[in-house]
Amino acid sequence: MTASGITTAALSAVPERNEWSSNATRNLLEAIAQTGQMVGATILIGGLLGLVLGITLFATRKGGILPNRTIYTIGNLLVNFIRPIPFIIFITAVRPLTVAVMHATIGTKAVTFPMIIACAMATSRIVEQNLIDSDPGVIEAGRAMGASRLHILFRILIPEALAPLILGYTYLFVGVVDLSAMAGAIGGGGLGSFALREGFARYNDYVTWAAVGVIIVIVQVVQQLGNTLARAVLRR
Predict the structure, then answer these.
(1) What is the 3-state secondary structure (H, E, C) of the chain?
(2) What percent of the chain lies above the pLDDT cut of 90?
(3) 235 φ/ψ angles, rounded to the nearest 5 degrees
(4) φ and ψ at 66, to 5 degrees?
């Protein structure tokens, strides 16, 4: 048999199973709930931790509001060490820590732990960079008025950078949805697991595109909300 004949035979052997069942509907709704749980917890906890870490990095950097070489070096090394690791590798690398904290390595709750860590590292850089990009004149004006360094940081700088921060967190949301899909590939549940298990593995394109459609809708809604909030803040 020629190579083209083998290829044709192989392709014809692939089953066509494009169908939608009541089980698919139930599983899709369950996957949406699991993705919401993962993304919501990650944005809430990881986003808050990243906010604190980002503010700390900005404040303690050389020439910052509260310069501290030791704190900045430790925080900077931590972020630089974790952030470049591909998430699919990171989630397996921190498995012992996940077991110690979550007492499990598989499931929605278990994969949320490494997602929170990854989110916090990414958030810290977003927050730090947005604060660095703030108008230096704002700091000088605060000092001229006799404001304390903490007052300048929390009452002047952060409100000044609020609109870019909102857009940064909106972008971060899209990244976290991406993390949840990768987590689903190794037993985390959610839309990623649903698309792979019910769609790809069973040659069901309807299921795969349903998952894609839901993710697109979620991302578009959050993106529009973020843009609207950022514009409202800029108009103040």
Answers:
(1) CCHHHHHHHHHHHCCCCCCCCHHHHHHHHHHHHHHHHHHHHHHHHHHHHHHHHHHHHHHHCCCCCCCCHHHHHHHHHHHHHHCCCCHHHHHHHCHHHHHHHHCCCCCHHHHHHHHHHHHHHHHHHHHHHHHHCCCHHHHHHHHHCCCCHHHHHHHHHHHHCHHHHHHHHHHHHHHHHHHHHHHHCCCCCHHHHHHHHHHHCCCCHHHHHHHHHHHHHHHHHHHHHHHHHHHHHHCC
(2) 58
(3) -80, -10
(4) -130, 70
Q: Tokens 């070096």 — which residue? A: 73
Is the CA virtual torsion 73, 74, 77, 78 positive or negative? negative
Q: Between the CA atoms of 188, 189, 192 and 194, what dihedral angle is there, to the nearest 10 degrees?
A: 150
Between 32 and 139, the more confident residue is 32
Domains defined along the chain, listed by start: 23-234 (1.10.3720.10)
The pTM score is 0.86
Kindly state the average pLDDT of the residues 78-98.
92
